[in-house]
């Protein structure tokens, strides 16, 4: 008795699993009924399906996604006159899945369910559509997917390097890195605030000193989706010019320049007691997390982010390095936030320095940074973000 019960369970689950993996279910036919209060649309199927529905507005549409199902019939014979359905379209959606789109003349309330074979009928998917008089209302069941999307903002933490007692690099005519990067960072923040789907926090919005460790903490405290530290170089070789983008490296720096830069940027924080260059010995909590597995994923994301930003900057300024460099910048040591450090040009180079202090060039650099990170997030939108939702909407417009 027990054994038989178990066998039934196994058979039941096999029957449930097989149709989706092995052979596609056919959507053979569609039928339509009208009654006073609702419209019933029935799809005749060769077997069971998994399906999802959701609605979109402006214009009103109802989308039905059937996994592992092919359309073998067509909908042209359906008489849609005087119904809420204007037209029915279909297309492939994903691998071997079918999407059916109902173009509607107004919002509807949906009740959908599957019927097993009975009384000479095969498997069926039934959609009952009730017209809604007023504004769109939340549809029941699976429609929740669309209405409850969090659409949250992507949080970008912008870190203008140095500040206060730490001027950063100083040019021949007294141009100060801390001033240049604050302007660029503020312009970038302004641009991000204007863009729907983004929120931005500045590590400093004025001329004051923030320890390196505090900068990392700010990014984590705000649950940043990305951290971008803005700097301007100085090099002993005065001809060195152009922008560079850096990511953290756990091992050695990718070039001698990268090693030098990391030493200089990290050293700027020496005035405080903690020397973050040797963070691994000083702060077991942070150092431990950095070595965590998640680091690899974040580093890969940082490198991708870095190369997208570098690509955007290429049209605005010369590049000092054509690829993303890696070095042990303390300010990038946030284990779970994709982080990059951008050297916008060389304060020590007369030509770069001259441009970097102009409002026009600062704006151009800020725009380049914005475009780079916008492109990155369009390619890699966090699942619950507004941009992810927006892209899903676009995809749904079959
Ligand atoms: Zn700097």
Task: Summarize it.
This protein has helices at residues 2-21, 144-147, 177-194, 212-221, 256-267, 279-282, 284-290, 294-313, 350-356, 359-379, 386-396; strands at residues 25-34, 39-45, 50-56, 61-67, 69-71, 85-92, 98-104, 108-115, 123-131, 154-160, 198-202, 226-233, 244-248, 325-327, 339-346. The chain is an alpha/beta fold and 398 residues long. The chain folds into two domains: 20-148, Sandwich (Immunoglobulin-like), CATH 2.60.40; 154-386, Zn-dependent exopeptidases (Aminopeptidase), CATH 3.40.630.
Account of the protein in words:
- 34% of the residues lie in helices and 26% in strands.
- By secondary structure, it is α/β, with parallel strands linked by helices.
- The chain has 2 domains: 129 residues, Immunoglobulin-like, CATH 2.60.40.3500; 233 residues, Aminopeptidase, CATH 3.40.630.40.
- The chain has a 6-stranded mixed sheet, sandwiched between helices.
- A hairpin with a 4-residue loop joins strand 3 and strand 4.
- Helix 3 crosses helix 10 and helix 8 packs across helix 10.
- The radius of gyration is 29 Å and the shape is elongated.
- The protein starts with a helix and ends with a helix.
- The N terminus is likely disordered.
- Bound molecules: zinc ion.
- The site of zinc ion has 6 residues, from loops.
């Amino acid at each position: 008795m027990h054994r038989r019960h178990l066998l039934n369970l196994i058979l039941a689950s096999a029957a449930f699993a097989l149709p989706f993996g092995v052979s596609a279910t056919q959507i053979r036919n569609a039928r339509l009924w009208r009654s006073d209060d609702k419209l019933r649309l029935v799809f005749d199927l060769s077997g069971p399906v998994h399906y999802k529905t959701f609605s979109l507005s402006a214009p009103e549409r109802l989308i039905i996604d059937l996994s592992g199902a092919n359309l073998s019939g067509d909908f042209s014979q359906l008489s849609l006159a005087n119904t809420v359905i204007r037209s029915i379209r279909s297309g492939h959606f994903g691998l071997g899945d079918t999407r059916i789109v109902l173009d509607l003349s107004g919002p509807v309330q949906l009740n959908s369910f599957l019927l097993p074979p009975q009384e000479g009928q095969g498997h069926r998917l039934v959609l009952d559509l009730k017209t809604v008089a007023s504004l769109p209302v939340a549809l029941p069941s699976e429609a929740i997917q669309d209405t409850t999307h969090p659409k949250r903002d992507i949080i970008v933490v912008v870190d203008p390097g140095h500040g206060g007692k730490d001027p950063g690099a100083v040019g021949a005519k007294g141009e100060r890195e801390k001033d240049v990067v604050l302007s660029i960072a503020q312009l970038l923040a302004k641009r991000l605030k204007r863009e729907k789907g983004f929120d931005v926090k500045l590590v400093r919005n004025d001329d004051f000193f923030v320890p390196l460790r505090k900068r990392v903490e700010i990014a984590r405290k705000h649950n940043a989706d990305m951290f971008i530290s803005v700097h301007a170089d100085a090099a002993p070789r005065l001809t060195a010019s152009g922008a560079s983008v850096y990511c953290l490296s756990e091992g050695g720096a990718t070039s001698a320049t990268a090693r030098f830069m990391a030493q200089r940027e990290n050293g700027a924080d020496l005035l405080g007691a903690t020397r973050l260059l040797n963070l691994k010995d000083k702060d077991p909590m942070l150092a431990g997390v950095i070595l965590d597995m998640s680091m690899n994923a974040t580093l890969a994301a940082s490198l991708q982010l870095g190369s997208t930003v570098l690509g955007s900057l290429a049209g605005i300024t010369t590049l000092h390095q054509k690829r993303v460099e890696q070095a042990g910048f303390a300010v990038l040591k946030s284990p779970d936030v994709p982080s990059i450090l951008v050297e916008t040009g060389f304060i020590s180079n007369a030509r770069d320095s001259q441009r970097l202090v102009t409002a026009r060039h600062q704006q151009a650099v800020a725009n380049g940074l914005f475009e780079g990170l916008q492109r990155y997030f369009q390619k890699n939108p966090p699942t619950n973000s507004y941009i992810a939702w927006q892209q899903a909407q676009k995809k749904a417009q079959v």
